[in-house]
């Protein structure tokens, strides 16, 4: 399951819905930059590093080596869920290959963003140390995998890396005032974190490959969205992992030939948090209306999300890039009061009509959207549970999106709760609770 826009497509809800049909739920990239909301039984859960399958006690939850993990963040998340009586014990495994975020990564992220902000080049990151940690992973010499916390040379390596990082922090901070990190304290803290995390740590690649052989049903929970993919997204305004479909296999170790279905999740309109071009952005009362009705404020940072119309040029690209076979259209209810709904079906760039997604961010910045208009329905649809009960214009909008994107829309969502979901009548793979409808 992949988000096809710039994140926050309501992936958490989809994972929660589909968990009952699976044995294993896998988070395979990203880190605590993700905030996945699940509303169930009148309770709201905001999951960050822990797979959204954790709310179903029968499912095995796996965090693979493609994830970057901040130990205090995940421990706080575990404690928060335990306090709400969510089961977390042997039903969760964390890869010993997952890369570890250290205080220097958080400082690098914060200081770099502050410095670039003054020159207007900030990415608008979540400041969770994601980029700096992935940078060290690729650079190799200063990186720590979770398994490294339990090796005899751990303290010695922390001292060595911390000394280098203190020089770096001084350089990137204004007027050489960079914070200086205490290596001994970090060794102490991370040794304690390691002791708590140890029962969860294992070789998830081996576990998942065995699960493939045993024909166990797996659900891969993408974080972020395909347009934030480091290789194929709106670079450099992206995250530092492969958040499109191409990342499933590199992040998890499970080859693509084993995937049965790729669900592309989209909002019925567009949002983006942080910097970077967003051709269909409505920085006006329409955008504010969507933000108000969709409660479009970041799950992780509470930043107001930028809002706009559905960009089908971008989504057509990410549908193909991620190998999507079926679509879930979320937050349809948010459009209920809009008299006319716009969908961007082409761009005009330098006076030319373009239907393909540009590879360079400057071209995307220059893109003027060309819209197709759909009539609104202007009635409350948030209580509807059957596809056939949706107003005609709402059905036409969903069918229109499916047609433009070239894939069937098999899930439509009209509210945060599990119940506010419709599966297409011919979606035989729907969970039993929905098939019964
Ligand atoms: P994720 O990161 O993709 O899991 O998405 P987020 O959790 O960050 O943001 C999606 C938000 O939309 C959450 O607050 C959900 O509870 C909410 N949501 C999910 N589906 C619907 C829907 O169909 N309608 C409305 N109004 N809200 C929804
Ligand atoms: P979920 O999984 C929306 C955005 C940040 C910023 C850019 C880089 O909840 O959909 P990073 O901290 O990753 O270096 O930030 O990516 N971003 C997200 N936007 N949803 C997310 O996750 C995001 N994770 C990162 O706002 O623009
Ligand atoms: Mg989110």
Main sheet characteristics = 5 strands, mixed
User: Could you give the order of strands across the largest sheet?
Assistant: 1-11-15-19-20
Number of helices: 13
Structural class: alpha/beta
What is the CA-atom radius of gyration, in angstroms?
Answer: 22 Å
Oligomer: single chain
Q: What is the global morphology?
A: globular
Q: Cα distance, first to last residue?
A: 23 Å
User: What small-molecule ligands were found?
Assistant: guanosine-5'-diphosphate, 6-O-phosphoryl inosine monophosphate, magnesium ion
Taken as a percent bin, the fraction of beta residues is 15-25%
Question: Can you give the mean pLDDT?
Answer: 96
Proportion in helices: 25-40%
Uncertain spans, ≥5 residues at pLDDT below 50?
A: none
Based on DSSP secondary structure assignment, what is the total number of beta strands?
20
List keywords for this structure.
binds 6-O-phosphoryl inosine monophosphate, 19% strand, 437 residues, 13 helices, five-stranded parallel sheet, five-stranded mixed sheet, binds magnesium ion, binds guanosine-5'-diphosphate, alpha/beta, single chain
Please provide a written account of the structure.
- With 437 residues, this protein is an alpha/beta fold.
- The chain contains 13 helices and 20 strands.
- The protein has helices at 11-18, 71-83, 103-118, 130-139, 154-172, 183-197, 204-213, 247-252, 285-294, 312-321, 361-366, 392-405, 432-435, and strands at 2-3, 24-27, 36-40, 43-47, 60-63, 68-69, 92-95, 99-100, 201-202, 218-221, 263-267, 270-272, 306-308, 310-311, 326-330, 340-349, 352-354, 368-375, 409-413, 421-423.
- The strands form six sheets. The chain has a five-stranded mixed sheet with strand order 1-11-15-19-20, covered by helices on one side. Strands 9-7-5-2-10 form a five-stranded parallel sheet, with helices on both faces. Strands 14, 16, 17 and 18 form a four-stranded mixed sheet that branches.
- Helix 3 packs across helix 4 and helix 3 runs parallel beside helix 5.
- The longest helix has 19 residues, at 154-172.
- The two termini are 23 Å apart.
- The mean pLDDT is 96.
